[in-house]
């Protein structure tokens, strides 16, 4: 783990302590201390130029014991090309997917996200990778995130854009557009191309 990754992991642990303390503590003075700790964490992140625009809201809306958030992504191939979607938020490209919603299984979340963003109905066939966002060259974030990448096959539907994904397309490994590294890295995408030739490989993790 690099120095920056180690620093971010420490700050995320501090944030988790503050979040859990705010939920479980019934002492008004402890509540104030945990709120102050959260403010100090926000300031540390700002000093590293990490976006904290929605910091307080994102932290406090997760009630209960603090745990990593789960982001699910679909890996869909058509012959030797991979499906990517252009993100309206940053103008870069990613795999279809997003935050896992409560009330759905992991595969159901993937299917829902793909349908919403691309108009395609898919079947999830394999968990390719379960990774800690801090360890794979993603853009730093104050959230601690696990990313789950699932191989999917298309059952039906026609490629259709959405508000969040105004452009869609299949790309070969040599013609990838600018990648949204907050969501997926080019190295991960290249790994998924390699997996095309190794369909029985075991799931990668960490």
Please identify which CATH superfamily of the largest domain we are dealing with.
Nucleoside Triphosphate Pyrophosphohydrolase
What is the count of distinct domains?
Answer: 2
So what's the CATH class of the largest domain?
Answer: Alpha Beta
What kind of sheet is the major sheet?
8 strands, mixed
Give the topology string: H per helix, E per strand: HHHEEEEHEEEHE
Distance between the termini: 12 Å
Shape: elongated
Low-confidence residue ranges: none
What's the helical proportion of residues? 25-40%
Structural class by SSE content: alpha+beta
**If you consult CATH, what is the topology of the largest domain?**
Nucleoside Triphosphate Pyrophosphohydrolase
Q: What's the quick description here?
A:
It holds the Pfam family NUDIX. InterPro entries: NUDIX_hydrolase-like_dom_sf, NUDIX_hydrolase_dom, UDP-X_N. With 206 residues, this protein is of the alpha+beta class.
Describe the protein's topology.
Elements: H1 3-24, H2 28-47, H3 55-60, E1 69-78, E2 81-86, E3 93-94, E4 97-99, H4 106-118, E5 120-132, E6 145-157, E7 167-171, H5 186-196, E8 204-205
Parallel strand pairs: 1-6, 5-8
Antiparallel strand pairs: 1-2, 1-4, 2-3, 2-7, 5-6
Structure description:
It contains five helices and eight strands, in the order H-H-H-E-E-E-E-H-E-E-E-H-E. A hairpin with a 2-residue loop joins strand 1 (about 70-80) and strand 2 (about 80-85). It has helices at about 5-25, 30-45, 55-60, 105-120, 185-195; strands at about 70-80, 80-85, 95, 95-100, 120-130, 145-155, 165-170, 205. The protein has about 210 residues and is α+β, with helices and mostly antiparallel strands. The protein is elongated, with a radius of gyration of 19 Å. The longest helix has 22 residues, at about 5-25. Helix 1 (about 5-25) packs antiparallel against helix 2. It has two domains: about 5-60; about 70-205, Nucleoside Triphosphate Pyrophosphohydrolase (Alpha-Beta Complex). The model has no long low-confidence stretch (mean pLDDT about 90). Strands 1, 2, 3, 4, 5, 6, 7 and 8 form an eight-stranded mixed sheet that branches.
């Amino acid at each position: 783990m690099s120095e920056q990754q180690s620093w971010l992991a420490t700050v995320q642990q501090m944030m988790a302590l503050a979040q859990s303390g705010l939920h479980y503590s019934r002492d008004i003075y402890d509540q104030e201390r945990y709120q102050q700790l959260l403010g100090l964490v926000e300031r540390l992140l700002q000093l590293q130029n990490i976006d904290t625009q929605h910091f307080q809201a994102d932290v406090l809306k997760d009630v209960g014991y603090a745990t990593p958030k789960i982001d699910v992504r679909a890996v869909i191939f058509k012959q030797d090309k991979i499906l990517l979607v252009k993100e309206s938020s940053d103008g870069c490209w990613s795999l279809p997917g997003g935050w896992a919603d409560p009330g759905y299984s992991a595969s159901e979340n993937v299917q829902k996200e793909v349908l919403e963003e691309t108009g395609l109905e898919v079947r999830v066939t394999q968990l390719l990778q379960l990774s800690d966002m801090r360890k794979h060259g993603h853009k730093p974030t104050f959230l601690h995130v696990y990313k789950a990448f699932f191989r999917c096959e298309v059952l039906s539907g026609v490629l259709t854009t959405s508000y969040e994904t105004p452009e869609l397309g299949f790309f070969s490994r040599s013609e990838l557009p600018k990648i949204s590294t907050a969501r997926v890295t080019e190295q991960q995408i290249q790994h998924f191309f390699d997996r095309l030739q190794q369909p029985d490989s075991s799931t990668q993790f960490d």
